[in-house]
Amino acid sequence: MLLSRRLLQLFVGLTAYGFAIAVMIRAGIGVAPWDVLSQGLVRHTGLTFGTVTFVTSLVVLLLWIPLRQRPRFGTIANTLMIGPVADLGLRVLPQQTEWWAQGLTFAGGLLLLAVASGLYIGADFGPGPRDGLMLGLHARLGWRVGVARTAIEVSVLAVGWLLGGQVGIGTAAEALLIGPLVAITLPLFARRRVATSVVVPARASSSA
């Protein structure tokens, strides 16, 4: 019974996470660093956002090998689900152009992202590819988690921006607010042993 509930929580969380990314993109005021990178790659490859997100996740998983990280079920589900759900969201959601609609849309997407993060992290089926890279650098190289996350996200943000990804006030808002928001939502959904050690998704997150 508990396992079934956790699986449902994982799949609902990952679905909501992918859709939240699409909502924030449609707001048009900037996105999280990994999504900036995906947008930049979309501009130069012609692939969909979801496809680029999936391929990027696979590349990140290859970086787990020298760090001796092992994917768990949640890692694979994260890799497979978030990109297609984001693509679906981008197909059905309109692009916002009015400043007030952009702000409200982004705020709604960010709140949904925080709830989604609490759900899928709290299910405790393992980190997403990007979180695992951060944790691997911490475990194998001795980097502090905050230092590893900052180094990774600054790097992907810079590359994404150079490739034409969308950097704006939403990028800064996500960086400042997602941690405190997930600190609120995670205890609502997490098993006790993960509720006290929040790892904010590196995607968003990430993803997850």
Can you describe this structure?
This protein has 208 residues and is mostly helical. The chain has one domain. The protein has 9 helices and no strands. The protein has helices at 2-27, 33-45, 49-67, 73-92, 99-122, 129-141, 145-162, 169-189, 192-195. Helix 5 packs parallel to helix 8. It is globular, with a radius of gyration of 16 Å. The chain starts with a helix and ends in a 13-residue tail after the last helix.
- Per DSSP E runs of 2 or more residues, the count of β-strands stands at 0
Give the class from helix and strand content and strand pairing.
mainly alpha
Q: What would the average pLDDT be, to the nearest integer?
A: 91
Q: What gyration radius follows from the Cα positions, in whole Å?
A: 16 Å
Number of helices: 9
- Could you describe the largest sheet, including whether it forms a barrel? none
How many discrete domains? 1
Shape: globular
> Residue ranges: pLDDT <50 for 5 or more in a row?
204-208
**Distance between the first and last residues' Cα:** 25 Å
What's the quick description here?
The chain has 208 residues and is an all-alpha fold.
List the helices and strands and how they pair.
Blueprint: H1 2-27, H2 33-45, H3 49-67, H4 73-92, H5 99-122, H6 129-141, H7 145-162, H8 169-189, H9 192-195
List keywords for this structure.
208 residues; mainly alpha; 9 helices; 76% helix; disordered C terminus
